Amino acid sequence: MFDFSIVTQWIHSMLTSFMPEGLAVFIECVAIGVCIMLAYAVIAIIMIFMERKVCAAFQCRLGPMRVGPWGTIQVFADVFKMLIKEIITIRHADNFLYNLAPYIVILASILSFSCLPFSKGMEVLDFNVGIFFLMAASSIGVVGILLAGWSSNNKYSLIGAMRSGAQMISYELSVGLSILTIVVLTDTMQFSEIVERQADGWFLFKGHIPAMIAFIIYLIAGNAEVNRGPFDLPEAESELTAGYHTEYSGMHFGLFYVAEFVNLFIIAGVAATIFLGGWMPLHIPGLDGFNTVMDYIPGFVWFFAKSFFIVWLLMWIKWTFPRLRIDQILTLEWKYLVPIGLCNLLLMVIIVVFKLHF
Amino acid sequence: MYFTLLVVVILTAIALVAVALGIARAISPRSYNPQKGEAYECGIPTRGQSWMQFKVGYYLFAILFLMFDVETVFLFPWAAVVQDLGVYGLVSIFFFIVVLILGLAYAWKKGALEWK
């Protein structure tokens, strides 16, 4: 498997050969920043296009077809449209908080985005408490949403933000419990370590039944965490116009929209990393020829294939099920997912302590 | 090393929003109309204040969330070492989780999980 850190070390040694160390590190930092921004924008664009096409496919339509071949230029046209829309300031809004909210939402999204291991050695933040950091960073987003709803001075926004807050903090518990189940199995929180441990089999299969239950809970809770699918009542169009971003226009709205889609990708990416082996190729014990062929496929192809498969699964769920009510959402979380998650955690501990796993 | 990268990522996030909004402000048209500044409530003027008292149910769930979130913070360091602790780790966390489940059961019985 190709180690991407060879490339970064080569760039570092090449830069330090003709300039002082400090300047070289500064240039590398700028390059990292530009790379994150580009990756973020590209993934957002791919996700928006995919959403429209997948939605169209499930509703027996064609989706965008007119602009460019198969409508591929449509998303760029949309981005350009978003840029040339006027940014309206509301007269009675709390202006400071109103302008601060997109910063916090994007900050939470980018912090968790840069934790994802795209390939071997190709990750920005590889802390030894990586998965814990990711959960902490992604939960900042709810503050931004609450600020957006509160500062807009609009009743739709306020109701949307409150619903969103209640839903996001509730479902964070289930996300945390299902991630904990995997941390118990690996005894590490570092993303690169977690992926390395899956060289001989993905955790979905290594962890017996508890890992599968955790995977299903994670998909349900992750879907609710990004306010999508059957859990999209913070922005229920038919009752709240647009929920917490009703008062945002132009690029202000665009940032919320982009953050929502990239958050979906992050949820899928984390699921792919901790349950489906991240950039690890599919290996079947005993079939050496098959394993060698699989090793030739680069790591980031595996990562993106797995992530987009889960994204597709979540979009399928979104366009199939009707929207839930707020009491149904909270009942599902507190009366079903949290007790099941806690029992599942205990089951996993028993399996790990008595060495019953593979 | 980690701290530098963290700062770089945070600055990137701020720069992304600032650049996007900056470009949008630079090339977007601007026109003034008193109607535009009003709250968007489908054409009807807002009745009274929007910053008002709110349903207490959300608050109850926030309190419950606090209990379980602190629990998650305690469980993560334990989860990282449970394989070395063995049966001792299992027994100690068993009582911890049982107490938590009892807390949830108490809240359930008190009706804090009902949406009224």
Structural description of this entry:
Chain A has helices at 5-18, 21-58, 74-83, 95-113, 130-138, 141-151, 155-186, 191-196, 203-206, 208-225, 237-240, 250-274, 288-295, 299-318, 326-353. Chain A is an all-alpha fold and 358 residues long. The mean pLDDT of chain A is 85. Chain A has one domain (85-353). Chain B is an all-alpha fold and 116 residues long. Chain B has a single domain, classed as NADH:ubiquinone/plastoquinone oxidoreductase, chain 3 (Methane Monooxygenase Hydroxylase, Chain G, domain 1), CATH 1.20.58.1610. The longest helix of chain B is centred in the middle third of the chain and has 29 residues, at 57-85. Chain B is flat, with a radius of gyration of 25 Å. The model of chain B has no long low-confidence stretch (mean pLDDT 83). The interface between A and B is large, with 77 and 67 residues.
Q: What's the end-to-end separation of chain B, in Å? A: 51 Å
In CATH terms, what is the fold-level topology of chain B?
A: Methane Monooxygenase Hydroxylase, Chain G, domain 1
How many E strands of chain A? 0
**pLDDT averaged over residues of chain A:** 85
- State the low-pLDDT regions of chain A, or none: none
Q: Which architecture of chain B would the CATH scheme give at its second level? A: Up-down Bundle
Overall number of structural domains of chain A: 1
Total number of distinct structural domains of chain B: 1
Number of helices of chain B: 3
Major beta-sheet overview of chain A: none
What's the count of strands of chain B?
0
Please report the number of helical segments of chain A. 15
Largest interface, Cβ cutoff 8 Å: A-B, 77 and 67 residues
Percent range for β-strand residues of chain A: under 5%
The CATH superfamily of chain B turns out to be NADH:ubiquinone/plastoquinone oxidoreductase, chain 3
Can you tell me the residue ranges of chain B where pLDDT is under 50 for at least 5 consecutive residues? none
Major sheet description of chain B: none
